[in-house]
Amino acid sequence: MALRAYFEGLAGEVGYMTLIDSVKEHNFLAGLTDAQANKVIALSEEVAFPENQLILSAREQSRYFYLVLEGSVAIEVSTRAYVVCIQALGPGEAFGWSALLEHHDTMFQVRARENCRALRIDAADLAQALRNDRELAVEILSRALKLAAERVLGTEARLGELCGVRVPKRLAEIRPGPGLKPNL
Fold first, then answer.
1. Measured on CA atoms in the order 18, 1, 128, 146, is the torsion positive or negative?
2. CA angle 26, 27, 32 (to 5 degrees)
3. Which CATH superfamily includes the segment(s) 46-182?
4. Less Cβ around it within 10 Å: N or C end of the chain?
């Protein structure tokens, strides 16, 4: 269901503007102009994932960019023998930034840690909107670059922990997920 239709369906219960405003306050969208946020929201649809569902697979091209609304997801590296959680993300955070790059495979897999809801944005639709609005493009791509940098820092911190290396304070503040778990 398109997000705008979803909001319109709930308008009588909570109020249309209240819901739109709450989505605009998502960390990734916060600070965009109303017109810019509305463009992104119009491209979005709400999706739900049950606990433990694989959302993105490693080594595949992602078609979607996600904004977490409720629940949490784990950014993971997986082998046949084990899975390492690199970072856990919750409401207000985003994942799937590699979908914004043409012909780029994902490095990590993303799994729902619990039941969660997210906004899913089709990368091809977003790319078209960014080509048509250079100011929006600068805002979205700058934010996506920050996400990529956070993943690199999270990976550095997690690898440091696993190798027994003292992790600098700036890396220790990145929230890694819960250790190794068997890959069943």
1. positive
2. 80
3. Jelly Rolls (2.60.120.10)
4. C
Looking at the chain, which runs of residues are DSSP E strands?
A: 44-49, 54-56, 64-70, 73-78, 82-89, 94-95, 109-112, 116-122, 180-182
Predicted TM-score (pTM) of the model is 0.78
Cα distances (Å, whole numbers) of residue 105 to 61, 111, 145: 4, 17, 16
- The residue count of the chain comes to 184
Tens-place pLDDT, residues 28-47? 998 999 999 999 999 999 99
DSSP state of 101: S
Q: How far apart (Å, rounded) are the C-alpha atoms in residues 15 and 23?
A: 13
User: Which bin fits 61, alpha (ψ -120 to 50), beta or left (φ > 0)?
Assistant: beta
Nearest residue to 144 (alpha-carbon basis) of 155, 158, 162, 130: 130
Report the greatest alpha carbon distance in the chain. 54
